[in-house]
Write a structure and sequence with these properties.
Layout lengths: L11 H25 L4 H8 L2 H34 L5 H9 L6 H11 L5 H6 L8 H27 L2 H9 L4 H30 L2 H5 L5 H12 L2 H26 L24 H29 L6 H35 L3 H15 L2 H12 L9 H11 L1 H13 L4 H8 L4 H9 L4 H17 L2 H6 L7 H10 L3 H37 L1
């Protein structure tokens, strides 16, 4: 059962950080509206309804639908196999299902471009070649392989949390396996599908690195072109506003689908784990599927990156590499901790209070996540260029990371809060503690796992960020992500390989941290149940 406090007005120490974050989210909207309505009334129709806008809208929606659909097709069987069957080595294959998160989308695009073509890795190693993977299919493959672990993690968690008595009751009433799946199991998986679909959809809408490398024109790619080449800021502002409308539509759709839904146990009986399903004759096809997915999403891109790294070994560039590595850590680390700190009050407002302002502040973080990074960066330049202490310093870049990636940090903290009963704080207050101290004494220790996951998520995202770093970093400042993109756009795969490899290694370490934390949380939960 999920409890919520009924007080309509939250305490100031939670509300103030939420309003501060909300202000940061509103700034880009103000900037975009100012730019968008610089055009005269007669020009607006021509700007908004030009043929190119319809073309970009179609490309963007097509990519979102394709990536979400492909992600579900890749992740759903894997989640079922590793959670509900007697597959040997389930923990190992669970790890393989998460590892693609360590290969960012644009690094996956780099690997695909380096693998294909007459001069690609495949042709150099085996002789025959296949065409360059560019355009829609290249972007679809790169983004699908990178984002399907979000579906996998959510679906696997949901499957492990299902109460098997629901299925047993359905079978006892004479339902067949297909009917049990569609009537008893699938409805329980809907929240996981909606949440991961929302996250993946927002990621695709705001992606810049993959679509630019694959030369596939979406709203994000067109925004970059307009801002950096054509200087048509009015049209670019309208493109950004249209992208925000798509984002708002996804948020509304997810909220609408989940409205009034309840998926917790209503009875007081004890729950138990479902018995593993025997794979039987499907065992060999299952291993073939797992091997093919591992080969395509992990082995092929890793081998490609390693191949070009060995071809580009040159100690004379080691100083540039170390400078880029330290530059990435220098902004990603403080941004990760600061974002997690802001995520706590926002998640608390959304979970513990039912007022409209609390829900708006929490959901507003998703608007900040989906605001085109390029437009967000230019908005900050517009508002802060008159403040030398902030403009073109690392502080503005850290602030941009914090506001932009807040949505990734809220989810894990919110999940932990749902599992922490508000009665703990009530008990602490009854012992004489003030409300804030009662929170830190009773609830905050239970958020440790969620906060650690939030820090890891934001660190990974900041290490991979491109547009914000392009426009907001000081002159001459380098990061691993910027160097990967810069070298890949020039088809200098050997020079960019070391930076791509460093991102993969750092990401893999943090993915390992997430898995260790997940295993520790599962163990503690099992101990508590026992």
């Amino acid at each position: 059962m999920i409890h919520s406090e009924t007080r309509s007005f939250p305490p100031w120490y939670f509300l103030v950080p939420g309003v501060a974050v909300g202000t940061g989210i509103v700034l880009p909207l103000i900037y975009l509206l100012m730019r968008a309505f610089e055009a005269e009334a007669g020009e607006l129709t021509q700007i908004v309804f030009r043929t190119r806008t319809v073309y970009l809208l179609g490309n963007t929606i097509l990519l979102v639908v394709g990536v979400v659909g492909t992600g579900i097709l890749l992740a759903a069987p894997l989640a079922w196999i590793t959670s509900r069957t007697d597959l040997k080595g389930r923990r190992f294959f669970t790890l393989l299902g998460v590892l693609p998160l360590a290969i960012p989308g644009y690094v996956m695009a780099y690997a695909l471009l380096g693998l294909s073509g007459p001069h690609g890795t495949f042709a150099l190693l085996f002789g025959p070649s296949f065409p360059n993977l560019r355009g829609y299919w290249g972007a679809l493959i790169a983004l699908s392989f990178y984002t399907f672990p979000y579906f996998f993690l959510n679906l696997r968690t949901a499957l492990l949390g299902l109460d098997p008595t629901i299925e047993e009751s359905a079978y006892s009433l004479g339902s067949r396996s297909r009917e049990v799946f569609f009537r008893a199991i699938l409805p329980q998986l809907c929240p996981a599908l909606y949440a991961s679909g929302l996250l993946v959809g927002l990621h695709v809408l705001g992606d810049f690195g993959v679509v630019s490398l694959m030369r596939y024109e979406t709203f994000s790619y067109a925004l970059y072109t307009q801002y950096t080449a054509a200087f048509d800021r009015t049209y670019a502002a309208w493109l950004a506003l249209m992208l925000l409308i798509l984002t708002g539509s996804l948020l509304y759709l997810e909220g609408r689908l989940l409205r009034g839904s309840k998926f917790h146990r209503a009875g007081s009986g004890a729950s138990h784990q479902a018995s593993p399903i025997s794979l039987g004759v499907w065992r060999i096809p299952t291993y073939v599927y797992l091997g093919a997915l591992t080969l395509a999403s992990i082995v092929a891109p890793t081998v490609t990156i390693g191949f070009w790294t060995l071809k580009g070994v040159d100690s004379s560039h080691m100083q540039d590499f170390l400078r880029a590595l330290s530059g990435s850590f220098l902004v990603s680390t403080p941004a990760a901790f600061l974002t997690a700190a802001f995520a706590i009050p926002l998640a608390y407002l959304g979970v513990r209070y039912s007022s409209s302002i609390c829900r708006i502040l929490e959901r507003g973080a998703y608007i900040g996540y989906a605001t085109p990074p390029l437009a967000f960066a230019l908005a900050l330049i517009f508002f802060f260029r008159g403040i030398p202490a902030i403009y073109q310093t690392l502080w503005i870049l850290i602030y941009a990371y914090t506001v932009h990636f807040l949505a990734e940090a809220i989810g894990p903290v919110r999940s932990a809060l749902y599992q922490a009963s508000p009665r703990l704080e009530e008990a602490a207050r009854s012992l004489g503690y003030r409300p804030l101290k009662a929170f830190f004494k009773s609830t905050f220790p239970l958020l440790r796992s969620g906060v650690i996951v939030s820090i890891a998520f934001v660190f990974l995202a900041a290490m991979k960020e491109l547009p914000l770093t392009f426009l907001l970093s000081p002159a001459g400042y380098e990061t691993l992500a910027v160097n990967v993109w810069s070298y890949t756009t020039e088809a200098m795969f050997a020079e960019g390989a070391r930076y791509a490899l460093a991102i993969v290694v750092c990401s893999a370490l943090f993915v390992g941290l997430l898995l260790m934390q997940d295993a520790r949380t599962s163990y503690e939960y099992a101990e508590a149940q026992a």
